[in-house]
Amino acid sequence: MTTAQFSFPVRDVERKVLDRVAELAEGFRAVAAGYDERAEIAVAHLTALHDADVDRAVLPEHVGGLGLSYSAFGHVVCVLAKADPSTATIWTMHAGAGVALAEFTEETLGSFFADEFLAGKRFANALSEPASGNRFLNPQQDAVPVAGGWSLTGAKRFVSGCEIAEYLLVNARVDDVPAFFGVVPDETVSTIPIWDTLGLRATRSQLLSFDNTLLRAEYRGRAPGFGDFAVIPAGLPAISLGIADAALDALVEHAQSRVILGKPLSHQQWVQYEVADVQTKLAAAHALYERALREADNGIPSFFPNLSRAKYLANKVAVDVAQLGVRVGGASGYLKKSPIQRHLRDAEAGQLMAYSTEVIAGEIGRSVLGVADGE
């Protein structure tokens, strides 16, 4: 990939990282199906990304990183998700937890978490809980005061990469206020092996149980702020867009190679019409996402709601493209060897990631209709 192919300004320090990610993604794509079939975390992929300075790149400059722009970050996640969406998801959650802890604790712990992140330690995002549903920034589980901090008993679900994590980003209510902590998993943190999911199998996003786990006072961070690098909200739309891009490529390849009555399937009018519909929607989803990233890079507050809109559209478009792939693929699309069935399974997962499409639809609808929250 050359600089001329980027649709956003690219600094020299970013160009090398983006080009290296494109190279790595080709290798990831070749083995993604195997990791998915085994439901195995591609640790080698995560190590390769770290060694290519991708972790350093996503860390903001003020905490010791290279400070990727939002536009460059979104490009990275899209490229990774097109090649291997499970790796893209784990890396996004790892980066989200590591960057958040580096920023949240900068004034109290200094560079501790940033240094650990740069050293290659693994982080995982443990915020979602059964009691709070999609509202992962508003925990319902209370931590009680104990010597050295607070004690948490409860559960966090869908913690991508938790089995290899050396640090967790955990939240809980302290004095009725959401509080955020770095947690080193110990004997009080156990994995509940629930992972036999339909899609994104290689994320191994397990349920974690906390049994009087100490939330150390010195590892407590401040609440998220507007100026923080919003890794996860910015990354989630890209995961679905990458899946949709891959699904469309698989659909096109099948339609061009499958011959029906002497002509490729791509010559059938119904296929052309349906492909036109999903490709146009996918282009619109990319455009909305890129707009939100540009707004984020320029400090325009509307980037947060527009990232939510981009996630909503990307989630739905990914499913539309993947479902059409199955229709065009016919019975062969159901075969285990076909990438079409994997893209369909992965596409469905995006809709369930917080905030889910239903929650976002409610927010968008209330905004458009002028209905205040809580009414």
From TrEMBL:
Residues 14-108 form the Acyl-CoA dehydrogenase/oxidase N-terminal domain. Residues 238-368 form the Acyl-CoA dehydrogenase/oxidase C-terminal domain. Pfam families: Acyl-CoA_dh_1, Acyl-CoA_dh_N. Signal peptide: none annotated. It comes from the Bacteria. One of its GO terms (molecular function) is flavin adenine dinucleotide binding. Its cofactor is FAD. Keywords: FAD, Flavoprotein. Belongs to the acyl-CoA dehydrogenase family. This is Acyl-CoA dehydrogenase. It comes from Nocardia ninae NBRC 108245.
